[in-house]
TrEMBL record:
Protein name: EfeO-type cupredoxin-like domain-containing protein
Gene3D superfamilies registered for this protein in UniProt: Cupredoxins - blue copper proteins (2.60.40.420)
Organism phylogeny: Bacteria, Bacillati, Bacillota, Bacilli, Bacillales
Length: 124
């Protein structure tokens, strides 16, 4: 009797685990599809004391800006603009009026390397 109960619990746990796995995969696929159909974007990947920036921006063109905290808790501020991204506002649409080089700084004290957490990107 006890063996059947344990076997039944094991089967139920496997089915629940499989359901959760596929639910996460579906959510990620929907997110990737949304990114693929979106227009130009700049993605700021923040990890401990550094930014990795992917994407391109052109002057006069609306760009979707997004922040991804890979390690730690960070916030992005683009110098010379009113753009601020954090955990409450992870994405924003913005139009860079002028081409040139823009500096990104971490606007949330994140540890001993916070002062050096800067990066630059070019708007064409």
């Amino acid at each position: 009797m006890q063996k059947w109960i344990m076997f039944s619990l094991f089967i139920v746990a496997c089915l629940l685990g499989t359901g959760v796995l596929f639910q996460n995969i579906s959510a990620r696929q929907a997110e990737l599809a949304k990114e693929a159909t979106a227009g130009p974007s700049l993605k700021f990947n923040a990890s401990n004391y550094k930014f990795e920036i992917s994407g391109k921006a052109k002057a006069g063109e609306k760009v979707t800006l997004s922040l991804v905290n890979k390690e730690g808790l960070h916030a992005v501020e683009i110098a010379g603009t009113n753009v601020k991204l954090d955990n409450n506002t992870k994405t924003a649409d913005f139009t860079f009026e002028k081409p040139g080089e823009y500096e990104v700084i971490c606007a949330l004290p994140c540890g001993p390397g916070h002062a050096e957490m800067r990066a630059k990107f070019v708007v064409e």
